[in-house]
Amino acid sequence: MDARKLKLAMIAAAMVVTLVSGCSHKTPSKYDVEGKYELFSNVRPHSLDTVRLDVYEDFTCPACQQFANEFMPPLQSAYGERVTLHMHYLVGSKSPVSAQVLYQVAESRGIGDVAAQHLFAARLDHHSDEKNSPVVAKIASDLNLSPEYESALHDPVTTQKIRTAWNEEGAKITFFPSIVVERVLLTNSNPENLNTIINSLLKNPMVQVSTKTLPNGEVSVRTDQAAK
């Protein structure tokens, strides 16, 4: 082989090495945040005193109802002020709107959190507003919001605002419930995975979360202080 052919062969070999190394998966480093999520930025592990969670839910979504009723309370109790929750209640493009109407009315009266608890506890139907309407009306009555609720329910501007909110805010998520951690990590409501991400970000991880499916099909969540 002459010098020119040898040089071309060496260049070709170098290109193959470069392509193979460029297409290989990145080796995890000590700076990776643990857990499963869809978005990533340069938030470094074990660098935060508190972790921000933006929670996106639909009152009629069964998975959102389970998260709100069963998963979120023990997580809140375990982490306390080390986790800050920012709730975003949206309505999917085909979901009933009555629950969201009541929430907006309650929020204007300063009792949005109370209304949200009642609405999630009611386990509303994800498809039928006919089934939901009497249940939501009863909650409105219990909260002394019936006149305002009925007025808003029959105001087309209210529904338009709710649908517009979905078109704007819904672009940030891909499923219900969605949780955005520190504004950059998109994940789901699996409590063990969420716990993994939170502890990976906190300077001093202290909480361990485990779930167990009970014989009746419900899921229990257990939180324990991690060993130091």
Could you give the topology of this structure?
Layout: H1 3-23, E1 51-57, H2 62-79, E2 83-89, H3 98-108, H4 112-121, H5 129-142, H6 146-153, H7 156-169, E3 178-181, E4 185-187, H8 191-201, E5 207-213, E6 219-225
Parallel strand pairs: 1-2
Antiparallel strand pairs: 1-3, 3-4, 5-6
Helix pairs in contact: 3-4, 3-6
Throw out a few tags for this protein.
228 residues; 6 strands; alpha+beta; single chain; 4-stranded mixed beta sheet; 47% helix
In words, what does this structure look like?
It is a single chain. The chain has 228 residues and is α+β, with helices and mostly antiparallel strands. It has helices at 3-23, 62-79, 98-108, 112-121, 129-142, 146-153, 156-169, 191-201, and strands at 51-57, 83-89, 178-181, 185-187, 207-213, 219-225. The protein has a 4-stranded mixed beta sheet with strand order 2-1-3-4, with helices on one face. Strands 5-6 form a two-stranded antiparallel ribbon. The protein is globular, with a radius of gyration of 24 Å.
Strand order of the largest sheet: 2-1-3-4
- The secondary-structure class comes to alpha+beta
Helix content: 40-55%
Identify low-pLDDT runs: 5-31
How many whole angstroms does the radius of gyration measure? 24 Å
Principal-axis shape: globular
Mean pLDDT: 81
Distance between the termini: 66 Å
**H and E order:** HEHEHHHHHEEHEE
Report on the biggest sheet: 4 strands, mixed
Number of strands: 6
Strand content: 15-25%
Annotation field: number of helices: 8
